[in-house]
């Protein structure tokens, strides 16, 4: 069974030695908790896939501490400097052409590698002190909701990993924005996240293409970013979505139903077989994103026949929340 380590100076050296020795450690980041292993050591990377039951065709993000490290593992386009100045360290992942040093296992055989410089102070210190490149997918079983606190990691992976650093609740609560920069003149947003499309476009001075390709129904379809499966981030309880702002709720014969409102709406009539929850009291998108996975995890396994979730208003972080909701519901 996993033990908790502290996200402070006292356990920093222990975590660094574990990772340098090839072990896996679950670490807090500002987005979600990651399951970290040495990205340049194949047996560590293999173990990351195994623990998550993640298919080997879904590549991992490599985390690093310093801008200068990027060129060790990837070809650096000129535009990256402006992006890094604006958003790193922080919740932006860029996909670049990879260099040979990165094992094919990390990138699922692709010629590109996804790179991110996380902002959370503990993982930053781990990266700085160890000088490692850390492969770190979200620390959840493949396809399930991402973990936003150490207890989430323990509850779903605690039987398979030994070390979880407890850094409390993640600030953003949803995963980083993923931007494909392999063709710098044609940047593509692969996964919406805390850094939204408008802010990227403002810094890049050009339009960012959304995902032109539809989400993939299965792993066997051609995938622009293999993690972009239509069904992902899913609770075990069936989940239906409702349009943002809907006032007349449909009746569901089977109960009990958990109704997750985006924002508390006192004049909304909730049918008697529904229990109501909300992601935010006042419509703050940052708060909604931070609460999203934690609330869904809490309700999943609480005996509900259905999770009914109201979408967030579109735009900015609302798009990232709705992306996770739609994929959670598989629509
Ligand atoms: O916020 C985050 O990004 C978290 C924290 C732990 O850093 N990590 C995370 O990793 O969400 P993961 O593995 O759960 O999601 C990585 C996403 C997947 O959709 C994967 O397919 C995509 O990034 N990805 C990784 N490498 C890629 C590549 N070379 N080309 C396209 N997509 C890639
Ligand atoms: Mg994930």
How would you characterize the overall build of this protein?
The protein is an alpha/beta fold and 331 residues long. It has two domains: 3-204, DHBP synthase, CATH 3.90.870; 239-329, no CATH class. The chain contains ten helices and 14 strands. It has an eight-stranded mixed β-sheet with strand order 2-3-7-4-6-5-9-10, sandwiched between helices. A four-stranded parallel β-sheet has the order 11-14-12-13. Strands 1-8 form a two-stranded parallel ribbon. β9 and β10 form a beta hairpin. The protein is globular. 46% of the residues are buried. Residues 213-217 have low confidence and may be disordered.
Question: TL;DR?
Answer:
With 331 residues, this protein is an alpha/beta fold.
Low-confidence stretches: 213-217
Strand order of the largest sheet: 2-3-7-4-6-5-9-10
Using the CA coordinates, give the radius of gyration.
Answer: 20 Å
**CA-CA gap between termini:** 36 Å
Ligands and ions found = threonylcarbamoyladenylate, magnesium ion
| Reported CATH architecture of the largest domain | Alpha-Beta Complex
- Order of secondary-structure elements: EHEEHEHHEHEHEHEEEHEEEHEH
The residue fraction in helices comes out at: 25-40%
Label the structural class.
alpha/beta
Q: Mind telling me the CATH superfamily name of the largest domain?
A: DHBP synthase
**Quaternary status:** single chain
Kindly provide the name of the CATH class of the largest domain.
Alpha Beta
* Overall spatial form: globular
Report the count of strand segments. Answer: 14
Instruction: Give the mean pLDDT.
Output: 93
The main pleated sheet reads as:
8 strands, mixed
């Amino acid at each position: 069974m996993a033990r908790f380590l502290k996200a402070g100076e006292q356990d920093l050296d222990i975590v660094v030695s574990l990772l340098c020795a090839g072990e896996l450690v679950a670490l807090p980041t500002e987005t979600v908790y990651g399951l970290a292993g040495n990205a340049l050591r194949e047996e560590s990377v293999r173990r990351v896939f195994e623990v998550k039951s993640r298919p080997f065709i879904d590549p991992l993000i490599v985390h690093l501490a310093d801008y200068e490290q990027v060129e060790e593992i990837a070809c650096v386009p000129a535009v990256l400097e402006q992006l890094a100045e604006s958003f790193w360290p922080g919740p932006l992942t860029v996909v670049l052409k990879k260099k040979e040093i990165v094992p094919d296992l990390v990138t699922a055989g692709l010629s590109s590698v996804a790179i991110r410089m996380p902002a959370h102070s503990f993982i930053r210190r781990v990266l700085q002190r160890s000088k490692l490149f850390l492969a770190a997918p979200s620390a959840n079983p493949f396809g399930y909701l991402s973990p936003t606190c150490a207890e989430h990691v323990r509850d779903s992976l605690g039987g398979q990993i030994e070390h979880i650093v407890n850094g409390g609740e993640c600030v953003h609560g949803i995963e980083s924005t993923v931007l494909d920069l392999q063709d710098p003149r044609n940047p593509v947003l692969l996964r919406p996240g805390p850094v939204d499309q408008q802010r990227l476009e403002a810094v890049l001075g050009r339009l960012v293409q959304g995902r032109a390709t539809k989400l993939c129904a299965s792993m066997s379809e051609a995938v622009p970013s293999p993690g972009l499966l239509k069904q992902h981030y899913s609770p075990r309880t069936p989940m239906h979505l409702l349009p943002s702002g809907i006032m007349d709720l449909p009746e569901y014969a089977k109960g009990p139903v958990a109704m997750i409102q985006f924002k508390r709406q006192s004049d909304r009539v909730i049918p008697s077989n529904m229990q109501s929850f909300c992601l935010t009291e006042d419509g703050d998108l940052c708060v909604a994103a931070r609460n999203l996975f934690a609330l869904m995890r809490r309700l999943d396994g609480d005996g509900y026949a259905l999770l009914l979730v109201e979408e967030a208003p579109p735009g900015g972080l609302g798009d990232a929340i709705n992306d996770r909701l739609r994929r959670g519901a598989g629509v």
